[in-house]
Amino acid sequence: MFISQQLRKQNIAEYVLYMWQVEDIIRAYHCDLALIRREYISRFDLDDDQREDMTDWYGNLIRMIREEGLTQGGHIQINKIVVQQMTELHLMLMQSPKFPFYSAEYYKVLPFIVELRGKSGKECGEIETCLNALYGVMLLRLQQKEVSASTQNAVKEITTFLGMLSDYYRKDKEEGLKFDDDI
User: Which long-range contacts (CB under 8 A, 24 or more apart) does 58-61 make?
Assistant: First the structure.
């Protein structure tokens, strides 16, 4: 919870990846708040108020997962909305001539996106495809599985691209971006 609050302010892509991981943690504990409290939350060095706040936060996420029928997989609506906001900002950045470096980075990453979409067989947007790639590699690394050199190269480019998008997202939230010359 405390990490998510910090990431949401600093790097929206990392926030999404973190929240996807939290969804998976909740599922690993069978959406059982008592089990999460006993076996997961208890590991953290928290005072009683922080522990209670974290328990409430996990409880709310569990409720959302259950209500949205996502106990086996998928992403809760609040996380989908953030990805949609990132996608909307991406489209605005691409349509504006004021962000040529962003557009150039996107076109560097586009072949990877096309390849990843072909391999996954899933229909999702470009930003979600990039996030899925990073999350997949993170899971491979957690399982101590080998990541090919070509995948590492793709991840490096995607990370740079999503980093730029995250920086623009933060700037837009803090001070607002100007997308055309009339403003």
Answer: 58/1, 58/26, 58/33, 59/33, 61/22, 61/23, 61/26
